[in-house]
Amino acid sequence: MRVTFLGTGDAGGVPLYGCDCSACTRARADADFRRRPCTALVEAGDTRILLDAGLTDLTERFPPGSLSAIVLTHFHPDHVQGLFHLRWGIGKNIPVYSPPDSEGCADLYKNHGLLEFRRLSKFEPVTINNLVLTPLPLIHSKATFGYAIEDTDGQRFAYLTDTAGLPPRTEAFLKNWRPASFALDCSYPPQSSLPRNHNDLTLALAIAETLAPAKVWLTHVGHEFDLWLNNNSHVFPRQIVVACDGDVIDV
Amino acid sequence: MRVTFLGTGDAGGVPLYGCDCSACTRARADADFRRRPCTALVEAGDTRILLDAGLTDLTERFPPGSLSAIVLTHFHPDHVQGLFHLRWGIGKNIPVYSPPDSEGCADLYKNHGLLEFRRLSKFEPVTINNLVLTPLPLIHSKATFGYAIEDTDGQRFAYLTDTAGLPPRTEAFLKNWRPASFALDCSYPPQSSLPRNHNDLTLALAIAETLAPAKVWLTHVGHEFDLWLNNNSHVFPRQIVVACDGDVIDV
Questions:
Q1: Of B18, B84, B91, the CB nearest to A78
Q2: 3-class SS at A229?
Q3: How far is A175 from chain B (nearest CA, A)?
Q4: Which residue of B has its CA nearest to A142?
Q5: Alpha carbon of A1 to those of A132, A133, B86, B244: distances in Å?
Q6: Which helix (H) or strand (E) holds A61?
Q7: For the purposes of burial, counting CB atoms within 10 Å of the CB of B50, is it exposed (0-12), middle (13-18) or buried (19 or more)?
Q8: 3-state DSSP call for residue B126?
Q9: Which of A33, A125, B32, B209 fits A27 for a cystine, CB–CB 3.0-4.6 Å?
Q10: Which domain holds residue B127?
Q11: Residue B192, beta-bridge partner list
Q12: In a 10 Å sphere around its CB, with 0-12 CB exposed, 13-18 middle and 19+ buried, how is residue A215 labelled?
């Protein structure tokens, strides 16, 4: 199984519009430091699943027939906004799996075009060609699922964003399931009070310590966390990596 | 007053995802034939107003402070989707004028960030620096305003999309107001039955004939209309022009 981080940014992204902090200035000068909307591509054999659809150039990145399915973590605009354009295309329908959310986002349900929405249920695995995904409830301001993803070789990866901490059943599932690695929401540097909706570094490291996988990729990174990383000679435990747009993991 | 058509496409744009018609194939091969989400920039002196915000790269096109205001025709995603990202920026608020629409689009009102939404009322002019805009109700599936726009020299331009026909009071206003030129929704080639929500060429030409301005720019063009234009040696009256992305009018 191969995972490509197509986007590792929070809703505002890096550079943040109007911000002149050193992280944003660097990203404006050098595209390697940009962070686009949080998105990952998971591939196994000829199965290609897009996790979230916040990139606005999906029609250019993914020619018709190149995606087995899109799987959404939740319906906030930065995770679904690329569907507003894609849906009007013609040809074969694209399955879009999502948490149960009666609202969705804007008029996506009403005018679904070639998108075929399919509702998932928590902890009920779905098989998409070569991959089995188990939806794991997260803690966010809208119904949100992370995903435990297993390929036919038994390789295991989890994708856990957007969330602030983990619900007890999700934590218990992951402790038992033991993924080799996972991607984890880490939007903020350490905060003085408990953050809402997203992990700060303190919460993210606590989750990493509890679950103790071989590798944790921090994603959904905001400019303040990038700035903090620039200004602090923080040494992460060996298994913690801050993901960048374009990073590829072979699980 | 200068008007730049930044986007002249319908919601699906040209090329349409998955479509291999000759209009879409041409646009895929040659970016000059692409049609992005329908958007115009109106400039007069140092006043710069963006009409609609469906372009998804607004943060790159318009550095902080470069827009006097954004004015929305309505809250369909292809007219507002660029705001989802822009709003999270920092710095000076950006005024966003719109028709009264209690829903808006997705969570734009709730999480408005640096956008400062201001509701307009039909036929009640608003002055934005060097320009006076009068909101004109249109006929669409969501509350939609066209705009009669006048600069300090008395030059007059109207922007009339999205609409299928014109309401009587809007038509009467425009007959009396006599803009030198206007942009007009023309999404489809001639249809066999009366189109809904958008003009076809038949409706657009009828409006042009009734109001008889010096120039009409057809916009919000779908791929079927481009295909029809390729396949039909249609001769337009001299005052009718099909707008292209990047076209500039000096009114």
A1: B84
A2: helix
A3: 35
A4: B107
A5: 12, 13, 35, 44
A6: helix A58-61
A7: buried
A8: strand
A9: A33
A10: 2-250
A11: none
A12: middle
| CATH number of the domain enclosing A123 | 3.60.15.10
SS3 assignment, position A47: strand
Give dist(CA A15, CA A21) in Å, integer: 9
Question: Does the structure's ipTM exceed the value 0.90?
Answer: yes
Is the confidence at residue B217, as pLDDT, over 80? yes
Q: How many domains in chain A?
A: 1
A145 within 8 A of A120, measured Cβ to Cβ: yes
Please name the helix (run of DSSP H) or strand (run of DSSP E) that holds residue A25, with its range, or none. Answer: helix A22-29
CB A7 within 8 A of CB A55: yes
Q: Residue range A131-144: average pLDDT?
A: 98
Please give the single-letter amino acid code of residue A41: L
B55: nearest Cα among B84, B30, B33: B84
pTM, two decimal places: 0.96
pLDDT digit string, tens, across residues A210-249? 999 999 999 999 999 999 999 987 788 889 999 999 999 9
Count the helix, strand and coil residues of chain B and give each as a percent rounded to the nearest 5: 20, 30, 50
Angstrom distances, CA of residue A192 to CA of A124, A189, B90, B153, B183:
37, 10, 22, 56, 53
Separation CA B43–CA B47 (nearest Å): 6
The percent of residues in chain B predicted with pLDDT above 90, rounded, is: 97
| Cβ–Cβ < 8 Å for A153, A186 | no
Distance CA A59, CA B37 (A): 14
A194 and A188 Cβ atoms separated by less than 8 Å = no
pLDDT of residue A234: 74
Measured between alpha carbons, how far is B139 from B185 in angstroms, rounded to an integer? Answer: 11
Query: Best of B85, B86, B142, B187 to disrupt the A interface by mutation (most A CBs within 10 Å)?
Result: B85
Q: Is A11 on the interface with B (CB under 8 A)?
A: yes
Closest CA to A172 of A130, A137, A142, A205: A137
Inter-axis angle of helices A22-29 and A223-231, to 10 degrees? 100
Q: Cβ(A70)–Cβ(A97) under 8 Å?
A: yes
Partners of A221 in the beta sheet?
A: A9
Which residues are CB-contacts of B106 (< 8 A; sequence separation ≥ 6)? A77, A105, A106, B77, B84
For A26-44, what is each residue's pLDDT tens digit?
999 999 999 999 999 999 9
Numbers of helices and strands, H then E, in chain B: 7, 14
Residues 132-151 (B) with a CB less than 8 A from some CB of A: none
